[in-house]
Amino acid sequence: MANYRSKLRGLGCPELDVNSLQKKRANEKTPAKNVKKARKGEANYLPPPPQGETEESLEQERLELLSEVKKRNNSQIINEKMEKTFSIRRQEVVTSAPPVSDLKERWPALFLPEQIKEEYKRITTANLESTFMANLDQCIPSLMPLVMSRGGAAKYKIQKIMELLKNNTVEIRREVAIRCLVVYLGENEDNLFEYVGQSNLFYFSTCPEWKCGF
Predict the structure, then answer these.
(1) Residue 57 belongs to some domain of the structure
(2) Strand, helix or coil for residue 29
(3) pLDDT tens, position by position, 86-138
(4) Which of 22, 50, 135, 150 pairs with 186 at a CA distance of 20 to 30 A?
(5) What stretch of H or E contains 157?
(6) pLDDT(194) > 80
(7) Coil, strand, or helix at residue 52?
(8) Is-contact 92 98, C-beta < 8 A?
(9) How far is CA 118 from CA 82, 124, 197, in A?
(10) How many CB atoms are closer than 10 A to CB 9?
(11) Which domain holds residue 73?
């Protein structure tokens, strides 16, 4: 098996090459230290570059992406270029672990809502939204008693949110769980929810039956 891995590394297999001693820092040059490997569900951890592409050609694609992301109604071209440059992006993330600010500067398209979902699918081959919703549904029964244990002003907010459960549908239960969790953690709701045309106080005081998208 060791000889097989050595041959794959010699052929340039990224997942093995990244852990070679030559690629490690001076203080990490032991076989078992700082091993980079796929986590559970990561089907495409460190894919090879597309056939016929080089680091230079993919870097040129990345530079073109910087201008494409500034254009309107350009999602198809952005998605094609993001798909094409996936290998060098993963190489950068896995080997360098850059700060989010640097990643946002080099790959602004990665932070678009659609591309967040697409990148998750490229790595895991699973749908982000359906995976999240399925896991949320499993957690709701144990999550609600936890958020209800909070006291003070947060408890009052949570009780007002819980009034939405009068219409007990799957969508409402999900919305209530996420809203309550935001309050429980002391986060700012405005970072996650948008109230169109009215404030959140108006929403909770007069229209508890309204649905809110997130």
Answers:
(1) yes
(2) coil
(3) 999 999 998 888 999 999 999 999 999 999 999 999 999 999 999 999 999 99
(4) 135
(5) helix 152-162
(6) no
(7) coil
(8) yes
(9) 9, 10, 31
(10) 16
(11) 38-124
Take residue 86 and report the two structure tokens written for it.
């996936």
Do 174 and 101 lie in one domain? The reply is no
Residue 125 falls in which region: left (phi positive, over 0), alpha (psi -120 to 50) or beta: left
Q: pLDDT tens-digit profile of 148-190?
A: 998 888 899 999 988 888 878 899 999 899 999 999 998 887 7
Task: Please give the DSSP secondary-structure letter assigned to residue 166.
Answer: G
Q: What share of the chain is helix, strand, coil (3-state, %, to 5)?
A: 65, 0, 35
Q: How far apart are CA 169 and CA 1, in angstroms?
A: 53
Structure tokens at 76: 């198809």
* Number of folded domains that form the chain: 2
Residue that terminates a domain, selected from 106, 124, 142: 124
Question: Residue 13: its pLDDT value, please?
Answer: 63
Q: 180, 144 in Cβ contact below 8 A?
A: yes
Q: Is residue 56 part of a domain?
A: yes
Asked whether 203 and 164 are in contact (CB, 8 A), the reply is no
